[in-house]
Specification:
Oligomer: homodimer
Number of strands of chain A: 13
Structural class of chain A: alpha/beta
Largest sheet of chain A: 8 strands, mixed
Distance between the termini of chain A: 39 Å
Strand order of the largest sheet of chain A: 2-9-8-7-6-3-4-5
Radius of gyration of chain A: 21 Å
Chain lengths: 421, 421
């Protein structure tokens, strides 16, 4: 290791998924059920072309779009973002959600990064779902943070376990190091589980109860990246609508996943003092997300094209989730278990504990040999001294693969499962 | 201060310039010679519209542009970037500059941020030009770094002073905390000074000589953001072409300033292990700059539109620099001093030391009253225990203002100078 590098650089490992991606690219016949991409065929090229043309043709709007904007983001996009959230969350969220609280970022990923910077010192503790979004675990590792996993139930966060974890941390005198609970609340990456509104309210209450012992606010960071991709059941309110949400909830969302991932625009809705802190940090990162991308997304929202595209995506993913479900039923052994997600891009498959699924497992090797790729469940678990990482699960995505490839992939995976055990 | 915030958040102040920008926006009659923007009238709306249309019309290229890319950046843009640099720097740079070393970022600002993360721990020392780019000083402050200023001469860095500073740091036992020398080498922001190639080579040599005492590599971070905006004289080689440059030079550049600031795309050319470290950090920030923006810039470069636009900008800025020069000659007192820059966007004006120019000075107040804004020189100086911040200079930009406004602004500023002393 080069001795000039910072502690942060030393702690920052290669993303586990990069190896999977490189593998997928290097083997053209490979079916990847690993990638969390959206489906290339669904990308709204026509919409984007027309919106950009409309934006860049009149001199007034074209100059504004090609010039610097403000660090917090395009005022119109901030307004539309608040409006859209309020339309979903209703008047209960009015105190939590206003254009002034919105901050536009380079995908929701950058918001997650900046929030971590704004709240956490090395050695601090974050509470995460067990399992959770693995790129967040990369941030945790890089910043020298410690993670504690909170178990999941079918309707999201296991509140009893959350209380246990908080209580243990309190007894260990570690509560002052706890800063936030990170919740991927809709069709969670990786499990597909959705946390109910009641549970969000209860989690906020619980955090509130431990604030005195912590000596500072405990934030609920709600990552709603997949919220728009619901294809079954009714929308669930975000924690912005929960009692007390206006002071303790930082909500993240994105316009790239439900529209065009190549146009990386996400957002946060942040209470003070987080909003001010993160705007300042963003000023140092890049003094504002590309104005061109922001303005084209504002037009997509305003024109209704965005909403229409989301409707189209929902139908498509619903169908593909069905194809995946059918394939698993047909090709997977009895003992494999899963829940049907109500949206998003993922199935989470639990195998018997004796069947290892990690990168070095026989199953993973067999799958690669048969030209199919999945995300080993193990990668989605934080390092937590309280338990070993489970190693018998996998994340399967119906996002990027075509219906034909999903079928083919599951057949191959079924064969690997038959052989790999 | 909210006790949940991190040390980084506590250290991150509001950017000094944000107050200036807000002032400018709030007073419509105000002439801002403060903004480092490019000229809105020069923004290549027609080019962008046609390039985007060409990119988004064929299904193959449109899908690729709207999908995720790789963290390091679009391969074609990386290739074109390396090619363009090699065309300027010649074969001497061949070992320093290849597509594999290029990393695309959200403007060069993000690259500067990530390089700071990759190299510096809180308490570490960076060497900067005195004065330097003030947004970098924001990063320095935010990350808890210390800065040491190195004086400037007409042809850039004062090498004797650089040696003195290194020697002092060595004697104080502080050399192990020094990580890099940050150099804005072309038409520097704020002074307009350009560092000669000979000086870059000599600076690299000097750094090399102190590496043993430092115990690690000392990097030269060359910020070439304004390189393309030359309107007089011949291009100067970057430090990539210097002996030893291939192992110690990190070069930053941008495609936004010379083309469209609303399309924020910059780049770094980094030696190992910096490249690997920064790609990993970028993976956590946002796993890659917007693919759409990258691909449209690749097409701008490939088609020659970018080069033509840069030619046009050079002529335009040359003219505007001339207008500013004439205005200063006409309206400014004898005692005011400046150098004609060979490119970029700025003049740096030195007043007699008795004339204060800071945010709280009589001169600044007078200028505001007369509806003209400049950047007080003081804002561009690092906190350095070795000297008080000079407070008798100003940065004037001919970037954003029209020729008429430049004339008007200088007349007003001349009047303020007559009154403000």
């Amino acid at each position: 290791m080069n001795p000039a590098l910072s502690d942060l650089a030393r702690r920052t490992g290669p993303p586990p998924i990069s190896w999977l991606m490189a593998t997928a690219l290097a083997r053209p016949g490979l079916v990847s059920l690993a990638a969390g991409f959206t489906d290339s065929e669904t990308l709204p090229a026509g919409d984007m072309r027309q919106l950009l043309d409309g934006l860049l043709r009149p001199p007034g709007s074209s100059r504004a779009a090609l010039q610097y904007g403000t660090t917090a983001g395009d005022p119109e996009l901030r307004r539309l973002t608040a409006e859209r959230l309020l339309a979903s969350d209703g008047s209960k969220a009015a105190a939590s959600c206003s254009p002034e609280r919105v901050l536009i970022s380079n995908g929701s990923q950058q918001m997650l990064y900046m929030l971590s910077e704004a709240l956490c010192n090395p050695g601090d503790i974050v509470l995460v779902e067990d399992p959770t979004y693995f790129v967040y675990l990369g941030i945790v590792e890089s910043h020298g943070l410690r993670a504690r996993g909170v178990r999941l139930e079918k309707d999201g966060l296991d509140l009893k376990h959350l209380e246990q974890v908080l209580e243990q941390l309190k007894r260990a005198g570690e509560l002052p190091r706890v800063k936030l609970l990170y919740l991927v609340s809709y069709f969670q990456n990786p499990t597909g589980a959705t946390t109910s509104f009641e549970k969000k309210c209860a989690a906020l209450d619980l955090l509130k109860r431990y604030e005195r012992a912590a000596g500072h606010p405990l934030y609920l960071v709600e990552d709603a990246a997949y919220r728009e991709l619901r294809f079954q059941g009714d929308d669930v309110n975000s924690a912005l609508a929960a009692p007390g949400g206006s002071r303790r909830v930082a909500l993240l969302g994105t316009y790239s996943k439900p529209f065009a991932t190549g146009a990386r625009v996400g957002f946060g809705v942040l209470p003070e003092p987080l909003h001010t802190a993160v705007v300042r940090i963003k000023g140092n990162h890049d003094f504002g997300t590309s104005n061109l991308l922001q303005q084209v997304l504002a037009r997509a929202l305003h024109s209704g094209r965005y909403a229409r595209h989301v409707e189209f995506l929902r139908k498509r993913y619903s169908r593909k989730a069905g194809v995946m479900l059918a394939g698993m039923r047909r090709h997977f052994p009895e003992a494999a278990q899963w829940e049907m997600p109500q949206g998003g891009l993922y199935f989470w498959v639990r195998l018997p504990r004796s069947v290892k699924s990690g990168l070095r497992s026989r199953l993973f090797r067999q799958a690669l040999e048969k030209n199919v790729l999945y995300v080993p469940g193990q990668l989605c678990y934080a390092k937590d001294p309280k338990r070993p990482k489970p190693n018998h699960e996998m994340r399967l995505s119906f996002g990027a693969a075509s219906e034909g490839d999903i079928r083919k992939g599951l057949e191959r995976l079924g064969a690997a499962l038959a052989k790999g055990r």
